[in-house]
Fold this protein.
Amino acid sequence: MHILLLSISLLITGFLFEERNETYKVHDLRTMLEIAAKNKEACEKLIKHLDGYNGKDPVVLGFEAAAHGIMAKHAWSPYYKMRYLRTSAKMFEEVIKEHPQVAEIRFLRYTLEYFIPRYLNMSEHMDEDKKVFLMSLLRYPNSDLDGEIIQNMRRFLLKHPDNLTEQEKKQLNNIKA
């Protein structure tokens, strides 16, 4: 069963990266990042794909930073895990410095930092990031976020509610996207 799922995942990954090799559409990047989180080869391809990006779209640059961070999950060596995390952190810092109010970038960093062990002291932006993206999330549909990312944010936060207040949980349950 696992082999079948892996085969299907690799087939989908191949389709995403071969057939749409030139895409930097946010919707496609969301799908690619989700697959990359589960599959090392897909993550490597996504990093290579995003390393070829020459544009200035801050969200695409945020996905590049997130892909490097996710690669730490797939790395075997602690040295390489830390190297990927440091690269990711530096990339996030650069893009957020230029675009501090872009909610999707803040959400990407928040989700990455959520899974970093606290003893590494690399999760210091979570409260600040949550404040920025939660503000946009709660303003929906009057925010710059589309329904897809609203659903993703809401689902993630309700699945991992330990950093939410009771009021924030209630507000999230009332969002319709």
Q: What stands out?
A: The two ends are 34 Å apart (CA to CA). Residues 78-98 form the longest helix (21 residues). DSSP finds nine helices and no strands in the chain.
